[in-house]
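Duplicate of #3305? Posting structure anyway:
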């Protein structure tokens, strides 16, 4: 059996953004990442947290969720499980294929296309809104492993280190941080 994951990188299959706090984000031909801010024209753009529940708790937190990435293989799995989901519908800005996003350590640097560079900050912590999108989907992306530890599979979050355009078809190159690697936790 061939491993679906490329340990060196992957490819961008779709990019998405929404100027308002919608659950799903419409696909675009390209997005521009802005250093220290996020996706130009996206509701989560900014140095400080933009996620509404986090703003309510403390609006001065740094925005560790500037860019949301999901692996297209999750869409494949969800569709095979009876859901109907495509790129951008789970709120991601960048959809990839061939890269084990969830297995990356905290601090991994991803080079997207020619110029854009992001640093992985952690896992997306999906909320009940995902069940409003499609009933039962939260249980499909959040579960427990054999030790009872919560496993989140709804993508990863990153901050923008260097800006640039990102388009479908762009390569994703991976620079792992120095060891010891710190597993991703939710942000």
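Output from current build:
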């Amino acid at each position: 059996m061939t491993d679906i994951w490329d340990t060196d990188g992957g490819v961008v299959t779709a990019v998405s953004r929404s100027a308002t706090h919608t659950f799903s984000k419409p696909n675009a031909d390209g997005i521009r990442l802005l250093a220290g801010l996020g996706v130009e024209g996206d509701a989560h753009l900014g140095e400080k947290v933009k996620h509404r529940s986090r703003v309510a708790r403390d609006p001065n937190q740094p925005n560790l969720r500037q860019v949301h990435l999901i692996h297209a293989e999750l869409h494949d799995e969800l569709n095979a499980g009876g859901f109907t989901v495509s790129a951008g519908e789970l709120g991601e800005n960048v959809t990839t294929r061939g890269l084990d996003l969830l297995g990356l350590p905290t601090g991994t640097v991803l080079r997207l296309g020619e110029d854009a560079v992001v640093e992985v900050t952690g896992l997306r912590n999906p909320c009940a809104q995902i069940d409003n999108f499609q009933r039962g989907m939260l249980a499909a992306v959040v579960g427990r492993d054999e030790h009872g530890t919560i496993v989140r599979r709804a993508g990863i979050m990153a901050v923008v280190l260097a800006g640039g355009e990102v388009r479908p078809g762009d390569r994703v190159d991976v620079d792992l941080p120095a060891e010891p690697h710190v597993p991703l936790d939710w942000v």
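Confirmed duplicate; merging threads. The domain at 9-175 is CATH 2.40.33.20 (M1 Pyruvate Kinase; Domain 3). The chain has one domain: 9-175.
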